[in-house]
Amino acid sequence: MTDLSQPGSQPAAGAQPEDSADGVPPPLWLLAELTYRCPLHCAFCYNPLDYTDHSRELSTAQWIDVLREARALGAVQLGFSGGEPLVRDDLEALVEEAHKLGFYTNLITSGVGLTDQRLGDLKAAGLDHIQLSFQDSTQQLNDFLSSTRTFDLKQRVAASIKRHGFPMVLNCVLHRYNLPHVDKIIEMALAMGAEYLELANTQYYGWAHVNEAQLMPTREQLDEAEAVVARYRRTHGERCKIFFVVPDYFERRPKRCMNGWGAVFLGIAPDGAALPCHAARGLPGLTLPNVRETPLREIWYDSDAFNRFRGLHWLKEPCRSCDEKERDLGGCRCQAYLLTGDAANADPVCDKSPFHESVVKVVQRAASASTVASGPREQPILFRNDANSRTLAAAAREPNVPDVASGSGAQP
Ligand code: SF4
Ligand code: SF4
Question: What do we know about how this protein assembles, alone or with others (predicted)?
Fold first, then answer.
């Protein structure tokens, strides 16, 4: 799981790149999604629903070219992500190259495959930072939500990460199932010696969007969790820095998504597609350039995909004449598409949007839904796995294929 606000990141040493002639700044963040393969099956996975359609991975040499081009462009922060990046046996070679280039490197991992041997090799290769994900503070929910038995292993991996002297971010994606456990999750992070805890409220794209009815919390759950976080911040100070961001659906103004489209973030998918945002693959009509065919500089500065929603020129009403547009740039394009059918609309989280009611309804549905403890959910959770991905991809291509969301899920 990845977040642009990843704590603990520091700028790398190196040249200060300049903005292009027309004022477009260089990318600062490179996210290398090395693979969509993953041993876990998280119900909120941010990988695209049809990830099985994009499984032809870049080679080691191609990834090294990406790193060199991105560094030359000016990128300083580098996240190795996936899927699970540890399934690539060239990870150490890529970390070594990134280190030589002067990137500040972060491994974003579920912990599966992070043996002592690999930790030692990654340390020797120059890896700076590790972000380890947990699904919950309890074995039962951790293992249920990832559809794997990984809780004990993650505990052992966390201890090994600390033994090897890495700064560690513990990441836990929050939703209605685990929000009541926030105090226990914080205790777990403190006990493990994590320097940072990222309590990342679910963003409802990809698999989380399919499972929205199951995962969406209530406002009361969020308020209680926020109060718990505030209490721990008061009592524990900086011992473990806790990040907690209220999910968009519960706000009246959107966030400045990705700190601006084509402004800071450059993602490269496993097959080489270049992404202005993690979820951009889900936007219809947006042709993503590929590093196999196009130099990164051309992708960043000249491609339609990176220019389509860059800056303010593309804004429609009500954003175009809004006096707050410089602050949020119209919000999230993927949210606009998912909830209004047009990625160029104002993010419907905004209460000035004519589609804001769609967000209000989702929140109201969550409030009126039965709680986890008090009864069966209307629809089973759909886990991220290859079979479900193939069915969803086929359904997107051929509307007559049965909807997987109505079938093979599970309930806690
Ligand atoms: S299944 Fe879970 S661990 Fe794997 S990529 Fe998706 S969110 Fe990350
Ligand atoms: S109308 Fe558009 S620019 Fe104005 S606050 Fe809402 S989303 Fe932001």
Answer: Interacts with PqqD. The interaction is necessary for activity of PqqE.
